[in-house]
Amino acid sequence: MASQSLHFLAPNNPSRSLASSPFRRPSLLPERLRLFRSSAAAHTPPPDLNPSPVPVILSSTNGIGGVSIAAAASAIDVDAVTEAELKENGFRSTRRTKLVCTIGPATCEAEQIEALAVGGMNVARVNMCHGTHDWHRRVIRQVRRLNEEKGFAVAVMMDTEGSEIHMGDLGGFASAKAEDGEVWTFSVRALKAPLPERTINVNYDGFAEDVRVGDELLVDGGMVRFEVIEKLGPDVRCRCTDPGLLLPRANLTFWRDGSLVRERNAMLPTISSKDWLDIDFGIAEGVDFIAVSFVKSAEVINHLKSYIAARCRDREISVVAKIESIDSLKNLEEIVLASDGAMVARGDLGAQIPLEQVPSVQQTVVQICRQLNRPVIVASQLLESMIEYPTPTRAEVADVSEAVRQRADALMLSGESAMGQFPEKALTVLRSVSLRIERWWREEKRYEAMELPDVASSFSDKISEEICNSAAKMANNLGVDALFVYTKTGHMASLLSRCRPDCPIFAFTTSTCLRRRLNLQWGLIPFRLSFSDDMETNLNKTFSLLKQRGMIQSGDLVIALSDMLQSIQVINVP
Ligand SMILES: Nc1ncnc2c1ncn2[C@@H]1O[C@H](COP(=O)(O)OP(=O)(O)OP(=O)(O)O)[C@@H](O)[C@H]1O
Ligand SMILES: CC(=O)C(=O)O
Ligand SMILES: [K+]
Ligand SMILES: [Mg+2]
């Protein structure tokens, strides 16, 4: 029976012998089922081969999976880190939660970016609030080179500045300390460095007119607080009431009688003219995601999406809505539906709503995104203390765990990786905590049954959705080793990811760009592979390539799906 199935699956490769495989497990009969029939002899889930939370780290000079992989374009694109994780841990234990790192002065050199990729970075974020186009171009090209030369699929996310009020640069200083009782001047004059002592530039011309004496001025949502004591034309003099560290371009909000003041600054466009120039730059440099700051409505997302569609016809850029303002919460569902993903940007969010409301808003946003099938990133201050210290606080670890437990698609580092002293250590903490919680789910068999509403907009989509829901359920019930999905658009891969199944999802796509974009989504391990509409051939090819690399073994149980055929099959790897 075993050899029959071998011939059936791999007629052109007689050299592979199931009988001699030490990994052989009883096959499902019949071997390939369009309609699944249960079999008692079917399958024993493999043990967690390596429960260690920290996967193998390859040295960055290691040639494994390096140039040779990328060069073999006809084969399969997978990076060395994924390959090592699959081999070491068995594929049930690969990390499901994705990691985004903000690149900044602490991480912008080629070796530093590579170290983050090796440490598990799935998406590199560049924040257009900081740095010049030349600086960002260099970073984006370094990520691209790394992908090309070492087979990684690190996506690039560009984050717009938006037109909220913020401070200027600190005349070249990395930070400045504001002490209790000190008087500082916030000025809308175009001051050049060196700035007069205790003077801060403000980017928004209307600032000096909008504030009133007695208003409270919050830097970074309250990290430092001032009281407005005097207005002198373009200058606003403020006394520090809560001391702290001022960082370049920190966000400013002002409050009157306990409420956030939203005057003319609330009328500023979500995408400023500087943002449009940055977006043109991002399109030209081939970024994969554009994250829009301070989104207020679905309209701006739709506008940006048509702008992108008109300018890049050969390739897609996903638009991520940053949820960080009161208006974005009012229109949450329609914003999420208009976008290709969302970010819970807790930094600015916590400056616009009371801090104690941020955790429940996070939970709501994550839940809505998961239900509507949009990837969701939880961002800001996850490991803030690691900007300065090599270990996180217990509270930070608990916060990271909570985001993983909510099954957010991705966690993001900001200052920790952009300008902190321990970027790689911070990434290691995110990775280990994610792996630990995910392993705990498996040990406790905690499949989560979230109510998933229909998201299909056509009958054909409805079929895909039903197939994915069933496949994910079958995967859990049968304890399969992996779901394989052959996808040209990524749609079925994301529908599978939405179900948060207990096993990893190998997503095969013919496009390098799509492979990168899929890298943001929970549980997806994206591969680039050229494939046809014939699943027989596709499976044979995949099994053979992955077996050659030691990434799967005979007897592994797989459920395979395809976008093109809308098919589902249960197969033992021959
Ligand atoms: N490209 C860069 N050049 C210099 N410093 C940077 C850069 N990117 C980030 N930083 C530093 O890292 C800190 C945290 O980065 P982060 O992206 O969270 O920015 P932010 O200013 O808090 O704004 P946002 O609300 O958009 O996240 C910044 O305040 C800045 O000091
Ligand atoms: C990430 C971001 O923009 C924020 O937290 O405000
Ligand atoms: K930003
Ligand atoms: Mg923000």
UniProtKB/TrEMBL annotation:
Main subcellular location: plastid
Keywords from the named record: ATP-binding, Chloroplast, Glycolysis, Kinase, Magnesium, Metal-binding, Nucleotide-binding, Plastid, Potassium, Pyruvate, Transferase, Transit peptide
Metabolic or biological pathway, per its Swiss-Prot or TrEMBL entry: Carbohydrate degradation; glycolysis; pyruvate from D-glyceraldehyde 3-phosphate: step 5/5
Keyword NADP: no
Any GO molecular function: magnesium ion binding
EC number, UniProt record: 2.7.1.40
Cofactor: K(+); Mg(2+)
GO cellular component, one term: chloroplast stroma
InterPro entries: Pyr_Knase, Pyrv/PenolPyrv_kinase-like_dom, Pyrv_kinase-like_dom_sf, Pyrv_Knase-like_insert_dom_sf, Pyrv_Knase_AS, Pyrv_Knase_brl, Pyrv_Knase_C, Pyrv_Knase_C_sf
EC main group: transferase
Protein localization: Plastid, Chloroplast
Catalytic reactions of this protein: pyruvate + ATP = phosphoenolpyruvate + ADP + H(+)
Entry keyword annotation includes Zinc: no
Residue span, Pyruvate kinase barrel domain: 95-426
Residue ranges of domain Pyruvate kinase C-terminal in the record: 465-564
PANTHER family: PYRUVATE KINASE
Family recorded in the similarity comment: Belongs to the pyruvate kinase family.
UniProt name for this protein: Pyruvate kinase
Organism whose genome encodes this protein: Dendrobium thyrsiflorum
